[in-house]
Amino acid sequence: MFRMLSNRRVLFVIACLGGLLTMALWPETLEVDVATVSRGPLVVTVDEEGQTRVRDRFVVSAPVGGRVLRIELEPGDAVKQGDVVARIQPVTPPLLDARTRAEAQAAVESSEAALGRARAEEQRARAADAQAERELERSRRLVAAGVVSAQDVDARQDEVRFGKEAVKAAVFSVQAAASELERARARLARPATPASMGTVMVSAPADGVVLRRLRESESIVPPGEALLELGDPRQLDIVVDLLSADAVRVDAGARATIEQWGESTVLDAAVLRIEPAGFTKMSALGVEEQRVNVVLGLSDRTACASLGDAYHVDVRIVTWEAGDVLKVPTSALFREGERWSVYVVRDGRARRTIIEIDHQTPREAEVAAGLSEGMQVIVHPGDLVRDGVRVRASASQ
Questions:
Q1: pLDDT tens digit string along 26-85?
Q2: What percentage of the chain exceeds 70 in pLDDT?
Q3: Which residues contact 313 (CB under 8 A, 6 or more apart)?
Q4: Could you count the other beta carbons within 10 Å of the beta carbon of residue 383?
Q5: Is the pTM here over 0.85, yes or no?
Q6: CATH 3.40.50.10330: does it fit domain 46-54+233-321?
Q7: Which CATH number fits domain 24-42+323-393: 3.40.50.1820, 3.40.50.2300, 3.40.190.10, 2.40.420.20?
Q8: Which residues, including other chains, have CB under 8 Å from residue 251's CB and lie 6 or more apart?
Q9: What pLDDT digit, counting tens, does each position of 5-24 carry?
Q10: How do the domains of the chain map onto residue ranges?
């Protein structure tokens, strides 16, 4: 009896140990997030920040130097072509100081001496030319009389030719010296007083509004100084600088959308042009990047009448789109060597499957081969997911 009880205890212990061992070795079922391979539209875009820009910008500059009177126009004020936008009172240029006047007087005297020397050289050249003409005529008479040979006439003809070239050079020297003298006298002369011109009215070159007032208070400005910027904010373009590697994927006329411009609506736009020249720009990480400006036009300007010049917007430019493709979430993809793979859920187990993808966005990818519609794939597969592991869909899905 005691022996039978001992055997039963041993068998019970063995059974418990076997159960514990079975539980320890039983494959664990992983809880995973899954997604279904489906068909639908796919749009590939290039996303970047952009800035609005008035299409036709006019910079109003000072036509003459002088005192610009206070400009009363404010940014946003409307102007018509021909309206007076600024007034300038020309001022008399300052007189020469003693040192500058002495230098200018010396330059005049030096130029007069150079002109006299050039004229004297011209007279000498003309006299030499006349003497050469007389010598040539005398040689011709002597040749006719048989006193000298014909070679003497050839030599005299060469002298005449050289003499005429010397006269031309002397004439050019006189003209150059005369011009230099006039330049020196102009520097010495007292400038004309422009005050007789009266107040110069600066008018608007086109209809528009004042974008920026570059000069506000009364001040002295040189000729060509920018005073105002005018433009029509109803005619806006959007400029976005793309990486050159992205710009080559964009075509003129491509569809685009404008987002985050201040309202929840999405605006339609189209690429007007891709500028042919790139430029270097420093990124936020301090890396030099080659960028290219892409200019877009809004399809409906009335939908965003509140936009103005140099406003920030987010731009999405479509580089490829299709209405019905087989697609899978990009979060399900992982690299296996040079190929893409996913874990497909089949009969409660994860099965590693090599696939081929074509176009891709940050969220979805077009499946070219390896999957079919309706399959379930594991998204965000962790380190515990292996080929053949038991899995079940997360309860939260």
A1: 456 888 999 999 999 999 999 999 999 998 899 999 988 888 999 999 998 999 999 999
A2: 88
A3: 49, 50, 51, 52, 238, 258, 259, 260, 261, 307
A4: 5
A5: no
A6: no
A7: 2.40.420.20
A8: 271
A9: 455 665 655 665 555 554 44
A10: 24-42+323-393, 46-54+233-321, 60-86+203-230, 98-190
Distance of alpha carbon 138 from alpha carbon 34, whole angstroms: 118
CATH number of 60-86+203-230: 2.40.50.100
The pLDDT score that the predictor gives to residue 20 is 54
- Kindly give, in sequence order, each residue whose CB lies less than 8 Å from that of residue 286, ignoring residues fewer than 6 positions away: none
